[in-house]
């Protein structure tokens, strides 16, 4: 990416199954934007849920959580901050709610298939969900609605995290 190109701060919203690669790519996009001089904030579902552990996984609770974090994202972006959001955010209506709040919303669908995510099983949650130890587990016993019109789709099955980051940066550069 050429250093001269000025990027317009946006809300980069990573959505996809657990283990699809949202956090891994987000964590690498963050320093890539920082070193180009942008103000950047990363809001991550797992990290925020650690602070607010009472947030559950019913449709209503997930959507309320997404609306709240989406509002924060929109306010940060309004003040010129690049916001990276990594949330499963399985429901189209909640993602659309956030899109409508944000001046510039980039929906990035991390479309790594369930079989690959389950094979990775980074946190051992899929195995537990298959055993019935976790209710409402996305992809196993809870729905994931694929984005209807994402700005970008990244399937991480056969690429490196660095290639995923490059796809995001190229998208941002080319749209300006
Ligand atoms: N039932 C169930 N379904 C899905 N995920 C579960 C569940 N229980 C716990 N976890 C862990 O919670 C993380 C997802 O949090 P999010 O805030 O991104 O979810 S959501 O947007 O509200 O759907 C998710 O993190 P990631 O693996 O990083 O996606 C899981 O580690
Ligand atoms: N191209 C890739 N992009 C992102 N993650 C990848 C990629 N290839 C393999 N992985 C691995 O897949 C896992 C993704 O986990 P994570 O980023 O926590 O997913 P999520 O945040 O969507 O739950 C990590 O173990 C990561 O090393």
TrEMBL record:
<dbReference type="InterPro" id="IPR059117">
    <property type="entry name" value="APS_kinase_dom"/>
</dbReference>
<dbReference type="GO" id="GO:0004781">
    <property type="term" value="F:sulfate adenylyltransferase (ATP) activity"/>
</dbReference>
<dbReference type="InterPro" id="IPR002891">
    <property type="entry name" value="APS"/>
</dbReference>
<protein>
    <recommendedName>
        <fullName>Adenylyl-sulfate kinase</fullName>
        <ecNumber>2.7.1.25</ecNumber>
    </recommendedName>
</protein>
<comment type="pathway">
    <text>Sulfur metabolism; hydrogen sulfide biosynthesis; sulfite from sulfate: step 2/3.</text>
</comment>
<dbReference type="GO" id="GO:0019379">
    <property type="term" value="P:sulfate assimilation, phosphoadenylyl sulfate reduction by phosphoadenylyl-sulfate reductase (thioredoxin)"/>
</dbReference>
<comment type="similarity">
    <text>Belongs to the APS kinase family.</text>
</comment>
<keyword id="KW-0418">Kinase</keyword>
<dbReference type="GO" id="GO:0004020">
    <property type="term" value="F:adenylylsulfate kinase activity"/>
</dbReference>
<dbReference type="InterPro" id="IPR050512">
    <property type="entry name" value="Sulf_AdTrans/APS_kinase"/>
</dbReference>
<dbReference type="Pfam" id="PF01583">
    <property type="entry name" value="APS_kinase"/>
</dbReference>
<dbReference type="GO" id="GO:0005524">
    <property type="term" value="F:ATP binding"/>
</dbReference>
<keyword id="KW-0067">ATP-binding</keyword>
<dbReference type="InterPro" id="IPR027417">
    <property type="entry name" value="P-loop_NTPase"/>
</dbReference>
<dbReference type="GO" id="GO:0070814">
    <property type="term" value="P:hydrogen sulfide biosynthetic process"/>
</dbReference>
<keyword id="KW-0597">Phosphoprotein</keyword>
<dbReference type="GO" id="GO:0005737">
    <property type="term" value="C:cytoplasm"/>
</dbReference>
<feature type="domain" description="APS kinase">
    <location>
        <begin position="9"/>
        <end position="155"/>
    </location>
</feature>
<keyword id="KW-0808">Transferase</keyword>
<feature type="active site" description="Phosphoserine intermediate">
    <location>
        <position position="89"/>
    </location>
</feature>
<dbReference type="GO" id="GO:0010134">
    <property type="term" value="P:sulfate assimilation via adenylyl sulfate reduction"/>
</dbReference>
<comment type="function">
    <text>Catalyzes the synthesis of activated sulfate.</text>
</comment>
<keyword id="KW-0547">Nucleotide-binding</keyword>
<feature type="binding site">
    <location>
        <begin position="16"/>
        <end position="23"/>
    </location>
    <ligand>
        <name>ATP</name>
    </ligand>
</feature>
